[in-house]
Amino acid sequence: MFKLHSRLKEDCHILGQSELSLLLLMNDLRYPWFIMVPKRPDIKEIFQLSGEDQLQLARESANLAFALSTAFKGDKINIASLGNVVSQLHIHHIVRFKNDPAWPGPVWGHSKAIPYADEAREMITGKIKAQLKKDFNFCRGAAGLGDHSENE
Predict the structure, then answer these.
(1) Cβ partners under 8 Å of residue 130, min gap 6
(2) Architecture (CATH level 2) of domain 4-97+112-141
(3) Is 39 in contact with 14 (CB distance < 8 Å)?
(4) Measuring CA to CA, which residue among 122, 77, 71 is closest to residue 95?
(5) pTM for this prediction
(6) Tell me, what DSSP letter sits at residue 146?
(7) Among candidate residues 101, 51, 107, the one with its CA nearest the CA of residue 79
């Protein structure tokens, strides 16, 4: 049974889900930073997914990247699956700007996150909802998504 890693649950807001993935928003208002987590148990690497799930993940990732590029007009979209801290497979999609606090370096460990207020979170989510509505079902908070927590 799939369970969302506790660190992802603590650091992010659950925005919605597709057939394959949960869509999360990293709770750091300095960057439009979204994370996709395939809802498959015990998966750490993309190659561990079935061939069909790998293709679906690639489609969802490309659609999310396009939506972020369109909505935020960033200078670059960083897409990465690291897993050094949280081994559960998750794909970061971060809109980068030449004037963001960490540019041109990585956002990880740059400085302390600045959490979203409810209004700012709703605004950033609203920017991509319309473009992703055929791929993801959005919700308010984690309501309707069931318990996706995992402790490691």
Answers:
(1) none
(2) 2-Layer Sandwich (3.30)
(3) no
(4) 77
(5) 0.91
(6) -
(7) 107
From CA 21, how far away is CA 43, in angstroms rounded? 12
Residue 78: count other Cβ atoms within 10 Å of its Cβ.
15
Return all residues near 125 (Cβ < 8 A) that are at least 6 apart: 15, 25, 138
List the structure tokens of 16. 């919605």
Say how many C-beta atoms besides its own lie within 10 A of residue 60's C-beta: 21
DSSP per-residue codes, 75-118: SEEEEE---SS--S--EEEEEE-TTSTTTTS-STTSS---PPPH
Q: Residue 35 CB: number of other CB atoms within 10 A? A: 22
pLDDT in tens, the chain (152 residues): 999 999 999 999 999 999 999 999 999 999 999 999 999 999 999 999 999 999 999 999 999 999 999 999 999 999 999 999 999 999 999 999 999 999 999 998 889 999 999 999 999 999 998 889 888 998 764 444 555 544 44
